[in-house]
Amino acid sequence: QVQLVESxxxxxxxxxxxxxxxxxxxxxxxxxxxxxxxxxxxxxxxxVSCVSKGGGRTYYADSVKGRFTISRDHAKNTVYLQxxxxxxxxxxxxxxxxxxxxxxxxxxGTQVTVSS
Length: 116
Prior knowledge:
Blueprint: E1 3-7, E2 10-12, E3 18-25, E4 33-39, E5 46-51, E6 58-60, E7 68-73, E8 78-83, E9 92-100, E10 103-106, E11 110-114
Parallel strand pairs: 2-11
Antiparallel strand pairs: 1-3, 3-8, 4-5, 4-9, 5-6, 7-8, 9-10, 9-11
């Protein structure tokens, strides 16, 4: 089946790190721009980071700039979000999105909890 699956979430202390993965099955991500989004309880979904199809251009929300790094491995058909210096306000369910034109795929999300 066509799937987009996030993994790598978990519970970490403030200042810790996590590496999220967004892996595609049943289709290739080569033609898609990939975005990471997050939604905290009671909050609207917000964009966190995006990477272009070729991986040459990236975007980061101001709240994560300098701490998060998005990258993609075409051979593994996977996009990563390296999250460093995590803060409690980073706590949210993180989703990846693959977009080409008007076609969009969403994963089910992976929970990130930052707490002492």
